[in-house]
Structure to design on (654 residues):
């Protein structure tokens, strides 16, 4: 009897061993040892993130719901692999750095149902993605991205009531415990402030053949939500389509593929948000082998200022006509600006990209621009491009340098695929693309570097709706995930309490020095000068500074930073450094002492600065230009900024 009981006990133990011998807990740590991802395999795939001694977010879970199965539900591990990667990335369009060290530790979990989940731990954050090995096509019904936040985390969000959005809403600021299911969802990125030591920026990269992710509040964190794949469309004006029918899935895609990275930038200093390059590190490699033709640069733009140059040298009726655009080209040529953008009105209609407006004469302007070494960028609606994909071949024959494509306002799978289809076709004919009415950068700009910029930001076109209080989150959120077309450069500057503006006399909120600093702080491969050439000629010393600022950089160093409050950034191109500082609607002026240790040791520099004038707190156009020599890397510069103010400088070796 005892032998039978012993045998039964052994069988039970062996059975228990067979059932539970599979390893269920894993840990991956960042190269510097600061950040840890703890992964647990139970009924779902769970993971927790900690930094230092602080637990940031716990019991998060992930899953991929396919038509006939859910990946991540009751996972059965078939194997795992860990390792370290240390490589160097040299982006074709270096928005922050010309050389990026990409070092991370990884954990690859392979599961029996024909899928894997890869985790990566970087010094600046963590990321994960699904990888599938399924035959044929699969339908993805949904994806589970669930993150748990303590209720007192402060979330900075760009909330929208619809999947149809230009991603230009003002940022809202709400505690995690107060953001609940009935509330508006948020676009990516979102920024979570732990109110202790760390901030967490959440976004995605390698978004290919898949919809963009939105987040909804749960009262205890956030969960993902996605637009369904559109199946049928109906007319909706000259620049949009109505979705008449949707699928029950969010994506129909190839069964063997990797899915978008979900990433968390984790910082204990807000400076790191500005300097981070996580989107790049997780992006696909460039499909364009020869990128020498891709020329980032500044562009003079007529829409914001109403195309109305005036003054003693303007002896023609200004507007959307040949003489006005030649004037813009002459201005661009004089100051070394690479491009002019011709917005709506260059063609006879928004639906026909092949019939230029006779009053404008695009072909003559292209010829004249080449003579003056200024390229032409043409505005188009996305719908017109979609219906006329052969236009890139035609534009190449005309000599067009780039296109600005507008009003997509969606990020479902069909629209995400449209972005790639367009940029790939444009690359065939060496044409640059600037997407407006766009979702945030998600890695496509590295796969096809001719995608030079995106909008998707509450920029200066909003006039008094574009306030520094909102814009001071941009370097830490929107610009932290990729380039953006904010359209800075206003020469009429006002404080909010006296603001009034109407095109063609468009004005901005913030001081003149603030506007100059935006060209250094904000990042875009195609950086617009939004104002009137007449005003730029009148304000020559400001224009000379603006047009000397590069659009790509070898090095970026955030000097002082607090999200929503102030940002002071130094950037290097070759041996020359630029510094830009901006602040919000603070009650009293802010003073900073800038440490210049980033400068080359043993060298002396000449500093030319533009700072808020003594009356800039009320008369925002008041500024002072100063110059001083023999500045070295062990020196300290004092910087003062009034409310909605700024500070800008260039440092040159002498």
């Amino acid at each position: 009897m005892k032998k039978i009981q012993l045998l039964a006990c052994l069988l039970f133990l062996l059975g228990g061993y067979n059932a539970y011998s599979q390893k269920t807990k894993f840990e991956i740590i960042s190269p510097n040892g600061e950040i840890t991802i703890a992964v647990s395999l139970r009924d779902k795939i769970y993971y927790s993130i900690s930094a230092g001694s602080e637990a940031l977010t716990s019991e998060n879970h992930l899953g991929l719901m396919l038509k006939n199965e859910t990946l991540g539900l009751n996972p059965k591990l078939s194997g795992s692999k860990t390792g370290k990667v240390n490589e160097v990335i040299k982006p074709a369009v270096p928005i922050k750095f010309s050389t990026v060290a990409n070092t991370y530790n990884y954990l690859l979990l392979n599961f029996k149902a024909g899928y894997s989940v890869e985790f990566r731990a970087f010094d600046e954050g963590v990321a994960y993605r699904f990888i599938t090995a399924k035959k044929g096509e699969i339908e993805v019904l949904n994806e589970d991205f669930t993150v748990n936040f303590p209720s007192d985390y402060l979330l900075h969000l760009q909330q929208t009531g619809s999947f149809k959005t230009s991603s230009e809403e003002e940022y809202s600021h709400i505690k995690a415990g107060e953001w609940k299911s009935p509330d508006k969802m948020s676009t990516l990125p979102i920024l979570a402030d732990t109110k202790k030591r760390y901030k967490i920026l959440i976004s995605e990269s390698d978004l290919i053949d898949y919809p963009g992710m939105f987040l909804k509040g749960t009262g205890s964190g956030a969960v993902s939500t996605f637009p369904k794949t559109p199946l049928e469309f109906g007319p909706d004006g000259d620049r949009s389509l109505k979705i008449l029918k949707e699928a029950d899935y969010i994506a129909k895609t190839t069964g063997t593929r990797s899915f978008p990275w979900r990433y968390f930038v984790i910082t204990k200093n807000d400076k790191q948000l500005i300097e981070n390059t996580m989107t790049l590190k997780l992006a696909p490699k460039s499909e364009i082998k020869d990128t020498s033709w891709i020329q980032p640069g500044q562009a003079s733009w007529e829409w914001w200022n109403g195309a109305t140059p005036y003054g003693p040298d303007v002896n023609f009726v200004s507007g959307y006509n040949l003489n006005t655009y030649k004037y813009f080209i002459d201005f661009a040529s004089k100051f070394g600006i690479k491009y002019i953008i011709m917005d709506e009105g260059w063609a006879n209609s928004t639906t026909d990209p092949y019939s230029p407006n006779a009053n404008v004469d695009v072909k003559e302007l292209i010829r004249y621009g080449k003579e003056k070494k200024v390229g032409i960028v043409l505005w188009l609606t996305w719908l017109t491009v979609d219906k006329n994909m052969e236009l890139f071949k035609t534009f190449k024959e005309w000599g067009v340098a780039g296109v600005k494509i507008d009003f997509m306002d969606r990020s479902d799978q069909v629209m995400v695929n449209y972005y790639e289809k367009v940029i790939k076709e444009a690359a065939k004919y060496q044409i640059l693309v600037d997407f407006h009415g766009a979702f945030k950068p998600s890695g496509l700009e590295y796969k096809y570097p001719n995608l030079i910029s995106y909008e998707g930001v509450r920029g200066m076109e909003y006039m008094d709706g574009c306030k520094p209080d909102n814009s001071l989150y941009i370097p830490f959120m929107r610009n932290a995930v990729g380039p953006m077309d904010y359209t800075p450069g206003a020469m009429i500057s006002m404080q909010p309490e006296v603001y009034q503006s109407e095109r063609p006399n468009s004005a901005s909120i913030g001081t003149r020095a603030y506007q100059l600093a935006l060209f250094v702080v904000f990042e875009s491969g195609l950086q617009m000068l939004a104002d009137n050439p007449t005003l730029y000629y009148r304000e020559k010393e400001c224009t000379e500074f603006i047009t000397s600022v590069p659009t790509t950089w070898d090095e970026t160093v955030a000097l002082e930073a607090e999200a929503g409050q102030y940002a002071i950034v130094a950037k290097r191109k070759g041996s020359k450094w630029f510094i830009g500082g901006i602040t919000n609607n603070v009650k009293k002026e802010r003073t900073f002492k800038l440490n210049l240790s980033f400068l080359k040791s043993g060298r002396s520099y000449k500093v030319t600065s533009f700072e808020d004038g003594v009356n800039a707190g009320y008369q925002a156009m008041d500024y002072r230009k100063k110059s001083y020599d023999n500045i070295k890397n062990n020196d300290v510069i004092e910087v003062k900024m009034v409310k909605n103010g700024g500070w800008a400088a260039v440092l040159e070796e002498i």
About this structure: The two ends are 97 Å apart (CA to CA). The CA atoms of residues 203 and 526 lie 23 Å apart.
